[in-house]
Amino acid sequence: MLEGLWAFLFLGMIKIGLLSDTHSWLDPKLLAHFANCAEIWHAGDIGNIEVLETLEASGKKIRAVYGNIDGGKLRQELPLDARFEAEGLDVWITHIGGYPGRYQKRIREALRENPPGLFICGHSHILKVMYDHKHQLLHINPGACGQHGFHKIRTAVRFDIESGEIKNLEIIELGKRGQLQEGQIVK
To answer: Which residues contact 120 (CB under 8 A, 6 or more apart)?
Structure first.
């Protein structure tokens, strides 16, 4: 009981903006959706350094990993995996990871040894939020928010972490892939 009280007193709440698969294009609306977030997490396939620099210019703490399309500069600056604690929650972000029952071999072996409380990956362009009962973790793939790929709707995720628990998870729909807003240019 006392441990729970100490956790409540010393662990706060943090709002997270989560995205993946920008593929060199960052929707200007996304930063407005993440305006109240303390941190922005990117699950790879950033595409170019300019997207990362734009996120960093937001003044928010950025946590990101590189993906399979990311070139040398991004691979030099970012890790393949990010494992860290956020408000008492063990978090693991990687780009290619799979999902409960269909994890990549590298991920499956690591989860057997030391599962996090939250496992995040991108790559598939398919939005998924699933609880993995076998490993006792929440799996999130925010889908893809870029213009390239087979996804139909561009998505991102926003949620709170409070005292080691995920709360207030929201799916952000940014519109159809390939559908530009007035004045937007895709390169």
So the answer is: 18, 41, 43, 91, 92, 93, 94, 97, 139, 140, 141, 142
